From TrEMBL, chain A:
F-box/LRR-repeat protein 15/At3g58940/PEG3-like LRR domain mapped to chain residues: 126-308
Full protein name: F-box domain-containing protein
Chain intervals with Basic and acidic residues compositional bias: 333-343
Organism: Eleusine coracana subsp. coracana
Region annotation Disordered: where it falls in the sequence: 1-26, 314-343, 531-552
Domain spans labelled F-box: 37-74
InterPro entries found in the cross-reference section: F-box-like_dom_sf, F-box_AtFBL13-like, F-box_dom, F-box_dom-containing, LRR_FXL15/At3g58940/PEG3-like
Segments of skewed composition (Polar residues): 1-10
Pfam families found in the cross-reference section: F-box, LRR_At5g56370
Species classification: Eukaryota, Viridiplantae, Streptophyta, Embryophyta, Tracheophyta
From TrEMBL, chain B:
Taxonomic lineage from the root: Eukaryota, Viridiplantae, Streptophyta, Embryophyta, Tracheophyta
Protein name, UniProt field: SKP1-like protein
Alphabetical UniProt keywords: Ubl conjugation pathway
Record-stated family: Belongs to the SKP1 family.
Protein source organism: Eleusine coracana subsp. coracana
Residue intervals of the SKP1 component POZ domain: 16-75
């Protein structure tokens, strides 16, 4: 058989680039010496430069004469308009034009427009997107400036059949017309866009390869019925404050044949769409289950909001679970818990100071100190007699579900990225929660999922706190420094076989579903057999009283967060 | 020579192919693993590389080839699934960890690996090694990059070109 001779063209080019290179260097492996990387063919150097940020890519031109033209000629353009954070639009736009001019003849891999703030700037979008350099574009991030109205997306933005990543924010899709087709698309993020049911449905159906999908606060459609066997991650949220009376929002989402679905994140909302998903086989992460979602069906498992369930079956329930388990405890366990509460009080000065990279600016340094409520520790004691909510509830889980056909979910902690400080405190407290004994008792799979915004600034702080507690059984790998929005992965740890699985992940695909912690039993046998919410045995309190208490707790929690939030953003 | 099987390679015992490195070392691997290389895939689909023959790879030495095959063997099952439901998060994480270890290597080995991945057209390996080099460059000044990658010091002409570039693309240096 004839030997295969590889890519003689690149070898020739390389020889001509390095006039003196002899045969030994073309066989590549025998060569020893400095500066091997520069000997790589142009296309390989180009693919390396394309992975760098826009400025870093441009700077490679000064490395040596070999690298001079790589960025301009060989590297598929990676143009992110982030550039300098202090740039105004009138400084940013000429730079973008200059870069595009320098790459007239090249190709582009990624184009990200998300830092232009003046509404008139969007007149450039269409002109830019029509340039031939973008013909084979793979990643498009298009965020429109906030204005009184949602500007219409230029038609040119929806014509890239080669797209793998599409991220669109704050605009209106055309009211009619053919749905775009993205055969290669794996990541779709639509946030604050107005899109008709037909167009949205058509666009997703025309993109069968979607693995990650984020649908956040979109308007113009009520129902979404999809069949996505390759979908792995799905995040859905609607307006969290209150239902808009003027605009149509998602009310019903149905996904059939979700065989690959691993992560389903539903952001906390006061109301939300009902969610029905069938064919779920690989679901590992489910959160955050706010009470706003009237019903969540995963095949035969149905989650309904506790208060509604109580209302419908008041004769079977003795007392509001919020009263009974969460905030008022009685009996021998309560004494123990109060004991813990007192001990927890000594430790409550959990002052946390940290630097956070703010998402947009990248380097604003924020210092904040928070004091940690003793409530955190109130329910930590785990007894086999207790149901799980008795320890998880005081841990900020101010809402929870009544489970019908209960099978997998134990509980969910909500950690919002908007409140960096409280997130830290909460995560800091996890080391108290995630004891080895507890995990073994539950035989759980524990997932801690953090939004990249949080992680960007905080991973150094929170990782050790959480990981230290897990060190005896976990194989800990360090977090990489996150690059918001371009990073989708990493920082994971797993424990050895036979022990619980711990899985930490930075996620850019979960915008406001910032961080969810949930405990999923690995095997059905280790699952407590009693129902999670006690059904009888306690005197029933008047409904109104229970409700009031719930709302009081809610508002207290919210106001506390608001304070932290304002401190954080100032 | 065996008739070419359909691409899935799951028919009974896994089909083996032999690859011969530039220094005449023979490597026997499953066809599914070797097929991660676009270059080899065609030959293998044509029924090449089986039996006593072998596919000579004159541009890849044995040390590099064994490294490349280590990658292919590890990634072959996931690639066969094409990211289908079986490729669970655990598998993915395991592969990620393997990849991180895999490219934790000396620069000369990395260079050979890049060339081999390029020549053999192994898509996953190409992006893995490119990412590794990009990570070596990220967050560094041009001076630091030069030192990291072992570039010679710039000549006066290069220095002049450099200054001109910095003038033209001032925004990249602020």
């Amino acid at each position: 058989m004839d030997p295969i001779v590889f890519s003689t063209t690149t070898l020739k080019r390389r020889r001509s680039d390095h006039g003196g290179a002899n045969k030994a260097t073309t066989t590549t492996v025998l060569h020893q010496g400095p500066d091997l990387i520069s000997r790589l063919p142009d296309c390989v150097l180009g693919s390396i430069v394309s992975l760098l940020d826009t400025e870093e890519g441009a700077r490679t031109a000064v490395l040596s004469s070999r690298w001079r033209h790589v960025w301009r000629s060989s590297a598929p353009l990676n143009l992110d308009d982030r550039l300098r954070p202090f740039y105004a639009d009138r400084q940013r736009i000429p730079v973008i034009s200059q870069i595009l001019g320098a790459h007239k003849l090249g190709s582009a891999r990624r184009f990200s427009l998300r830092h232009l703030h003046v509404i008139s700037s969007i007149s450039y979008y269409n002109d830019w997107l029509l340039l031939p350099v973008f013909d084979g574009l793979q990643e498009l991030v298009l965020r429109f400036p906030i204005a009184a109205y949602r500007p219409e997306i230029p038609a040119s933005a929806l014509c890239f059949a080669s797209l793998r990543v599409l991220d669109i924010y704050n605009c209106t899709f055309p009211a009619s017309g053919c749905a775009p087709v993205f055969p290669c698309l794996t990541y779709l993020s639509l946030r604050h866009v107005c899109i008709t049911e037909e167009l949205l449905h058509g666009m997703i159906t025309n993109s069968p390869g979607i693995e990650d999908m984020v649908l956040d606060t979109n308007y113009g459609h009520r129902q979404l019925c999809l069949s996505q066997p390759r979908l792995r991650h799905l995040a859905v949220s609607v307006m969290t404050a209150e239902k808009s009376t003027e605009e149509i929002e998602l009310e019903d989402i149905v996904i059939k044949d979700a065989a690959s679905l691993e992560r389903l994140l539903l952001d906390e909302a006061l109301y939300g769409p009902s969610v029905r998903i069938t064919g779920v086989r690989n679901l590992k992460i489910l959160g955050y289950l706010g009470t706003g979602f009237p019903v969540i069906e995963l095949d035969t498992t149905i989650f309904k909001v506790a208060s509604q369930a109580l209302e419908s079956s008041s004769s079977h329930n003795s007392e509001s679970p919020f009263r009974k388990r969460g905030f008022r405890c009685s009996g021998p366990d309560a004494r123990k818990r109060r004991e813990e509460k007192r001990r927890g009080g000594e430790m409550k000065a959990a002052d946390v100071a940290f630097k956070a990279l703010t998402a947009g600016l990248g380097f604003a340094t924020l210092y904040l100190a928070g004091t940690f409520s003793i409530n955190v520790y109130r329910g930590l004691s785990w007894h086999s007699e207790q149901s799980i909510d008795s320890w998880i509830l005081p841990l900020f889980c101010y809402k929870w579900m009544k489970f019908e056909g209960m099978s997998t979910i134990v509980s969910v902690l909500q950690l919002r990225n908007h409140y960096h400080v409280s997130s830290v405190i909460r995560l800091g407290s996890l080391e108290k929660v995630l004891t080895v004994e507890l995990m073994q008792a539950l035989s759980t799979c524990i997932t801690i999922e953090l939004n990249s915004y949080v992680l960007t600034g905080l991973h150094k702080l929170l990782a050790p706190a959480v990981l230290r507690a897990l060190a005896p059984i976990a194989d800990v790998s360090p977090f990489p420094s996150g690059d918001e929005a371009t990073t989708t992965g990493h920082g994971r740890l797993f424990v050895a076989d036979g022990l619980p699985l711990i899985h930490m992940q930075i996620s850019a695909s979960a915008p406001r579903c910032s961080a969810a912690v949930l405990l999923l039993p690995c095997s059905a046998t280790s699952m407590p057999t009693r129902p999670l919410l006690p059904m009888s045995g306690q005197k029933r309190a008047p409904r109104t009283a229970g409700d009031n208490e719930f709302s009081t707790n809610c508002s207290r929690r919210r106001s506390g967060m608001a304070v932290l939030s304002s401190g954080c953003h100032d | 020579m065996a008739a070419p099987e359909s691409g899935d390679g799951n028919n009974g015992a896994a089909r083996m192919v032999t690859l011969i490195s530039s220094d005449n070392t023979r490597f026997e691997v499953e066809a599914a693993a070797a097929s991660l290389s676009q270059t080899l895939q065609l030959t293998i689909l044509d029924g090449g590389g089986g039996g006593g023959d072998g596919i000579p790879l004159p541009n890849v030495d044995s040390a590099t080839l064994s490294k490349v095959l280590e990658y292919c063997i590890k990634h072959a099952p996931a690639a066969a699934n094409g990211g289908a439901p079986n490729a669970t998060a655990v598998d993915r994480a395991e592969l990620e960890r393997f990849d991180n270890e895999f490219v934790n290597i000396d620069q000369s080995v990395l260079y050979s690996l890049i060339m081999a991945a390029h020549n053999l057209e192994i898509e996953g390996l190409q992006s893995l090694v490119a990412k590794k080099v990009a990570d070596m460059i990220k967050g560094k000044s041009p001076m630091e990059i030069r030192r990291t990658l072992g570039f010679p010091d710039p000549t006066p002409e290069e220095q002049a070109e450099m200054n001109a570039h910095m003038l033209e693309y001032g925004w990249a240096y602020e």
